């Protein structure tokens, strides 16, 4: 057996090129999507876009379940809270607004009864995480799919498409094309 008859070992892993944007963040096709196209890829993308949150809230309000997204947003904000006193105040506010049996916008989650004054006195950034995850999953597997079929979403998508296809948008695109292709 000659040395050149043996198969070569796969020593070299496949090369993966990563293209970064001007700020050094990895570029991806998802980053080029915007508006309704990006919202339709995941609930996470929808919740990252203020306009998406606004439209989703509008939809949930019609379904009498806006408290779910409001609770999720309050928990996200709570995680960023600095200082024990501020955390105590926000934790109590979240509890009284969304979790207490007398809450004005009560969410339906398991385990809310385990939250008590002791826990509220010693808050930590992730204290609502399990409850927030329950609400996220409820929205993801229930409300979100209906939202993508709703008039609110479809009308917004239609207006986006009309805007993109408008003569003004096409003229701007042609100008940009001439600038970059010269």
TrEMBL record:
UniProt keyword terms in alphabetical order: GTPase activation
Q: Which GO terms describe its biological process?
A: regulation of G protein-coupled receptor signaling pathway
**Matches recorded under InterPro entries:** RGS (IPR016137), RGS10/12/14-like (IPR046995), RGS10_RGS (IPR037879), RGS_sf (IPR036305), RGS_subdom1/3 (IPR024066), RGS_subdomain_2 (IPR044926)
Q: Which CDD domains match?
A: RGS_RGS10
Please provide, in alphabetical order, the Gene Ontology terms of the cellular component aspect for this entry: cytoplasm; nucleus; plasma membrane
Question: Which residue intervals make up region (Disordered)?
Answer: 158-182
Fetch the SUPFAM superfamilies from UniProt.
Regulator of G-protein signaling, RGS
| RGS domain ranges (all copies) | 42-153
Q: Which GO terms describe its molecular function?
A: G-protein alpha-subunit binding; GTPase activator activity
Name under which the protein is recorded:
RGS10 protein
């Amino acid at each position: 057996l000659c040395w050149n008859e043996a198969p070569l070992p796969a020593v070299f892993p496949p090369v993966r090129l990563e293209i970064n944007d001007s700020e050094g963040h990895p570029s991806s096709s998802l980053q080029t999507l915007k508006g309704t196209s990006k919202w339709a890829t995941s609930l996470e993308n929808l919740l990252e876009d203020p306009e998406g949150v606004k439209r989703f809230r509008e939809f949930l309000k019609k379904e009498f379940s806006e408290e779910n997204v409001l609770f999720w947003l309050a928990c996200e904000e709570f995680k960023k809270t600095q200082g024990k006193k501020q955390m105590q105040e926000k934790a109590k506010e979240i509890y009284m607004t969304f979790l207490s049996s007398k809450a004005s916008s009560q969410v339906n989650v398991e385990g809310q009864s385990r939250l008590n004054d002791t826990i509220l006195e010693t808050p930590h950034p992730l204290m609502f995480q399990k409850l927030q995850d329950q609400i996220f999953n409820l929205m993801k597997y229930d409300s979100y799919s209906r939202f993508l079929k709703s008039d609110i979403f479809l009308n917004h998508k239609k207006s986006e498409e009309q805007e993109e296809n408008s003569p003004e948008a096409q003229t701007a695109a042609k100008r940009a094309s001439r600038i970059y292709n010269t």
